[in-house]
Design goal:
- It contains 4 helices and 10 strands; from the N terminus they run ααααββββββββββ.
- By secondary structure, it is an alpha+beta fold.
- The protein has a domain of 132 residues: Distorted Sandwich (Coagulation Factor XIII, Chain A, domain 1), CATH 2.70.50.
- The longest helix has 13 residues.
- It is elongated.
- The two termini are 39 Å apart.
- The N terminus is likely disordered.
- Pfam families: Rho_GDI.
């Protein structure tokens, strides 16, 4: 399969309406009351929810996911902590990576009100207007809790060489199974010979 046909398949995946009926939504309290006589379902719900204080989650149908920080981790260096903008996109250059370096991304986020099902990360990168990378990863399903969650992505290596160095633009999104977007940001970054 050629690179162009792979890219087309990835792009088409975002536009396909699968018409999947996920069924009615229930508040967390309603979900716990349903099938309470089924022992295996009760244990599964307890395992999924852990130590959630049901009285603190309220009667909200929609989960709330708030991203607290994004971090770039590279061995032998302090983590680059990227604060998530409250509104809009980061202004100017957001970060710089060293060419040929190993790194991983880590996301810290808070889940409130209800279970978020099928939280997915997508990231698309362009250089001089040409799409050079696209990543999609299922992060998982999370219950509301007081402590934030942290998810670390698999390690990657930045490209290297004369043509790899320079400015890049990117778009990162976090959406759930219901196609609700929790973070959608566009930003720019550089790849250089050395870390800044």
């Amino acid at each position: 399969m050629s690179e162009s046909s792979i890219a087309e398949t990835e792009d088409d995946d975002d536009h396909v309406d699968r018409n999947i009926d996920l069924g009615p939504q229930f508040t967390l309290k309603e979900q716990l009351e349903k099938d309470k006589d089924d022992e295996s379902l009760r244990r599964w719900k307890e395992q999924l929810l852990g130590s959630v204080d049901i009285n603190s989650v309220g009667e909200t149908l929609e989960p709330e996911v708030k991203f607290l920080s994004l971090a770039i981790k590279s061995a032998g260096r302090d983590d680059i902590i990227l604060p998530v903008p409250e509104t809009g996109n980061p202004n100017g250059l957001w970060f710089t990576l060293k060419e040929g370096s190993r790194y991983s991304l880590a996301f810290t986020f808070q889940v409130n009100h209800n279970i978020v099902s099928g939280l997915k990360y997508t990231n698309t990168v362009w250089k001089t207007g040409i799409k050079v990378d696209s990543t999609k990863e299922m992060i998982g399903t999370f219950s509301p809790q007081a402590e934030p969650y942290t998810h670390e992505m698999p390690e990657e290596i930045t490209p290297s060489g004369l043509f790899a160095r320079g400015a890049y633009s990117a778009k990162t999104k976090f959406v759930d199974d219901d196609k609700k977007s929790y973070l959608d940001i566009s930003y720019t970054f550089d790849i250089r010979k050395e870390w800044l």
